[in-house]
Each structure stands twice: as structure tokens, then as C-alpha cells.
Amino acid sequence: MKKIRNILLLFVVIGLIAGCGNQANKSSGNSSEKSSGTVKMRSADVVDINSPYTKGMEEFAKDINSATDGKLSLEHFPAGQLGNDSQILESVKQGSIDFGLQGAIPGSAVAGAFYLPYLFQDADHLKAVIFGSTGDKIKAKIEEETGVKVIGFVPFAARMLTTNGVEVKTPEDLKGLKIRVPESPAVIEAWKELGANPTPLSFTELFTSLQTGVVDGQENPYEIILNNSFYEVQDTLNETYHNFPVRTLIMNKEKYESLTADQQKALEETWVEAAKSIDKMYSEQEAGYKEQLLEKGMKFVESDIESFAAKSRKVTDKLGTEIFGEEIYQEIVELRK
């Protein structure tokens, strides 16, 4: 019996030695892979494949690969291929997608507040906010709300209101209209104040909802209206210029923290250049988008911007202060010309 116990003990010891050796090899392999392998990542968006955002993300992917000597590889999936905004956000949180480029981030009151009507005076005012110290403070608040890493912002073009046969020249013309808005409580409240019946819907559901009459209208920049063929189900474009919003590049926090300091720096610096490139593309193409919409037969209506701004000022000031915080909101106001 003693001899059997000794034999069994010998097998246990041999097994432990072999296990330690395998673990050492495994650890050594992981260390080698981390130091010399390529980190493959994916990003997602809901906008059209021809959008400047899609082209900008493709440039970002090439540049980040170059800036890190091939250590970081990124593949971008536009046009809702990996889900709607809510699904993309959840996938980024879970880590099945590494990046998401989003407008009103579901669940983030701060990101949603960017869409408050007439918050920004113009595109220059928006850029002064998002590319300065105020923008850094806003990033931190979004990160705290959502648990994702905010890499940075990129300007979005002015939003216009489209309808089907209804001219919206003053806030009174909005009465009773079901307008699709981003899924943001603050934006919903603001559009109610303007007299509309705001209806939050996922962007990927929007065309069908316009087609079937679930909503009467929607608000987006010229490019989104054109590239998503909204002119097929909306015939009137009301130039309200009610918002100069942003889009936000978010990243899985754990993936970001797993990168080296140099890789993190390269990622953020490369995004700054990508954001500038996207903004430049938009500026160069804006007039062309409008011209194409005219060619598609859309009727353009000049809205009374001053009356809309005056009508919305009280609620935008109230919600802006509540959501951004008094300090940040006052900085936004002070950056107006």
C-alpha cells in the first residue's frame, strides 16, 4: 500500500511540474504576442457608407495603423451593419465592438444636451467649445455617465427640419407635428416647448416611420437627408438651423486601458486629425448636398430663425444649466460671439 501511495505521489509531482512548465510557456507566449502582435479592433456607425464620417473613419483606420507601425488595426462598419445606436453603445460597453461613432449617445444626458435647439450660435461657436478645455470637461461627464472612454468629438453640420407638405416658418407651424428626435429626454422636452409632438426613434427605423406616417417629419443635416433618401418620403425642407451638434467617438474603456501610453497618445492625436478631415469634407460638400436635394424636388422654406431661437431660449438655458452644470453651461454661453 505504501508503495502505491509513493507511485501516486510521484505522478502528482510530475503533473505539477509539467503544468508549471506549460503555464510558463503560455505566459511567455502571451507576453510575446502583446509586444509584437497586432491589436485588431472594430468600429461601428449608423450613417450611410458615402458619408464624410464613413470616409473619415476609414482614413482614421489607415492613419492609426501607420502611426503605431502596424500595432493597431481598425476595421470600420458603417450604415448600421453592427446595429443601431443603442446596440452599438452596448456592444462597445461589452467589448464586442471597440469603437462607436455616435450622435446622441443613448443614456447620456450630457451628449443628448448637445442637441438642445439653438445651444450653439454657429459652427465656429461649436468648435470653440468641443476643441477647448470646455470640451475636455464635457468628455469627463459623458465618461462618468456611460462608463465608456471618450476619444473625442467631431462637428456635425447644421440640422434642418423636413416635413411632408407642411411649411414651418415659425414655431406656431409646429403645432401637433410628430417630429422624430434623438432618444434624449432633454431634446424631447425642448421640442415640446417649441410646440411639436417629439417622437424618439432609432435612426435605423426612421425611413420606414416616415414612409408609414408613424412620424410627420425629422431633423437632420442636408447630407443625412440626401444619403438616406428621405426626399423620397419628405418633400419640404425647412431651413431652421436649429442645431449645430457633434458626433462622439467612444471606445471600450478596458480596451483603451490595455493599450500602451504611446498607443493611447497616437490614437487620440490621430483622431484630432481625422475630425479635422471630416469637418473639411463637410464644408466642401455642403453646398452640393443642398443642390442635389433641390434637384430631387424638395421645396426649401426659409424659417424665421430669430423667432425659433427666442421661443427655445428659456428651455435651452434651463436644461443646459441642469445637465452640463452651471460652470460648463456658462462657459458655453461665454464662447458665443
Task: Explain what you see.
54% of the residues lie in helices and 17% in strands. The protein is an alpha/beta fold and 337 residues long. The strands form 2 sheets. Strands 7-6-8-5-9-11 form a 6-stranded mixed sheet. A 5-stranded mixed sheet has the order 2-1-3-10-4, with helices on both faces. Helix 2 (52-67) runs antiparallel to helix 11 (261-295) and helix 12 (305-324) packs antiparallel against helix 13 (326-334). The protein contains 13 helices and 11 strands. Strand 6, helix 7 (185-194) and strand 7 form a beta-alpha-beta unit. It has helices at 2-36, 52-67, 85-94, 109-113, 123-130, 133-146, 185-194, 206-212, 222-227, 253-258, 261-295, 305-324, 326-334; strands spanning 39-44, 72-77, 99-102, 149-155, 159-163, 178-181, 197-200, 217-220, 236-243, 246-251, 299-302. The chain is globular.
In short:
This protein has 337 residues and is α/β, with parallel strands linked by helices. The chain contains 13 helices and eleven strands.
